[in-house]
Amino acid sequence: MATASATIEVPASADQVWQLIGGFNSLPDWLPFIPKSELSEGGRVRRLETSDGAVVVERLQVFDNAGQTYSYSILQAPFPATDYLATIKVEAQGEGAR
């Protein structure tokens, strides 16, 4: 299976960054390409609508608020995706976060 990784450094504390991006339903708050997100199945599944109207459905696999990380898989997408698992993690980096 192929893997990819991306990291950015943010001039804010890890707690501040996690507060913004740490919610499974928070993508519209910080990702302009995703203006709409709706939760179902008790918050374990999100239905995302992209700015061009495409729909992506994802399932929350792991959520660790204390560790500031969550992982999710894609259930449905307008692009081919099989065995997709992504992880978002916030880590303290000096006075900021990454």
Secondary-structure element sequence?
A: HHEEEEEEE
Helix segment tally: 2
Q: Gap between N and C termini, in Å? A: 25 Å
The residue ranges in which pLDDT falls below 50 over 5 or more consecutive positions are none
Topology, please?
Elements: H1 14-21, H2 27-30, E1 36-40, E2 45-49, E3 55-64, E4 69-76, E5 85-89, E6 92-93, E7 96-97
Antiparallel strand pairs: 1-2, 2-3, 3-4, 4-5, 6-7
Describe it.
- InterPro entries: Polyketide_cyclase/dehydratase, START-like_dom_sf.
- It comes from Pseudomonas jessenii.
- The protein has 98 residues and is mainly beta.
- Helices cover 12% and strands 38% of the residues.
- The model has no long low-confidence stretch (mean pLDDT 95).
- The longest helix has 8 residues.
- It has a single domain, classed as START domain (Alpha-D-Glucose-1,6-Bisphosphate, Chain A, domain 4).
- A hairpin with an 8-residue loop joins strand 4 and strand 5.
- The strands form two sheets. It has a five-stranded antiparallel beta sheet with strand order 1-2-3-4-5, with no helix packed on it. Strands 6-7 form a two-stranded antiparallel ribbon.
Compact description:
The chain is mainly β. The chain has helices at 14-21, 27-30, and strands at residues 36-40, 45-49, 55-64, 69-76, 85-89, 92-93, 96-97.
Features:
two-stranded antiparallel sheet; about 100 residues; START-like_dom_sf; about 10% helix; five-stranded antiparallel β-sheet; mainly beta; Alpha-D-Glucose-1,6-Bisphosphate, Chain A, domain 4; single chain; SRPBCC family protein
